[in-house]
Amino acid sequence: MSKQVIRTDKAPAPLGPYNQAIATSGQMLFVAGQISLDPQSGQIVGEGDITAQTQQVMANLEAILKEAGANWEDVVKTSVFLTDLANFVPMNQVYAEYFLEDTAPARACVEVSRLPKDVLVEIECIAVID
Q: What's the whole-number average pLDDT of the chain?
């Protein structure tokens, strides 16, 4: 099985030794966790605002999916990391704008003690691509 690195300047550059996404010859796309970094400025969007941060995270994920030739309908699994589960409802309201309830991907959502750059949310996903 071979792999292809997926990169786009429409999403933030990695903050460490990883790539935005990896596509495999087995038609799987693994998208690294995205935080609310603006890809142009490199600054956090929505400091302290879970709704604004989730919107930026989803925009970053969408840019990477698009670069790989995928879209939200191709996503089969997401993992959501929140620094406070009290933010679940507003995060979920934004998240729900991207997925139809009857075809939404499998999802895990966990509270973590801290995320990079002290953001409130990070989301990663796995998609099936053609």
A: 96
